[in-house]
């Protein structure tokens, strides 16, 4: 079994996941509401929104969609996506990319439990934690 996170956006899903694919070096599979067999039941103004997107990074997946009139957007709250990275330069690079245009709750820094740790919300409203638990030499 695997547990995967599923995010909801309010029209920014495609932009967010294109950014995540580039930042995390992943691949995307994307379907719009217009491509659904049930498109006739979706108001036309939502047809170009993302019905489902899957970002694959290695053997991990992050999925999402945009809201519709039938499922109104309530924001992303109460959870964070955590990136467990293998080295300090990778942590620094991800932190810089994800923090740009967002808000930082905890700067990337050494803690008593981690070589580097940070908490931030990116420009799309997604909360992230970056954790790196390797020695400085790695």
TrEMBL record:
<dbReference type="InterPro" id="IPR029068">
    <property type="entry name" value="Glyas_Bleomycin-R_OHBP_Dase"/>
</dbReference>
<feature type="domain" description="PhnB-like">
    <location>
        <begin position="2"/>
        <end position="130"/>
    </location>
</feature>
<protein>
    <submittedName>
        <fullName>VOC family protein</fullName>
    </submittedName>
</protein>
<dbReference type="Pfam" id="PF06983">
    <property type="entry name" value="3-dmu-9_3-mt"/>
</dbReference>
<dbReference type="InterPro" id="IPR028973">
    <property type="entry name" value="PhnB-like"/>
</dbReference>
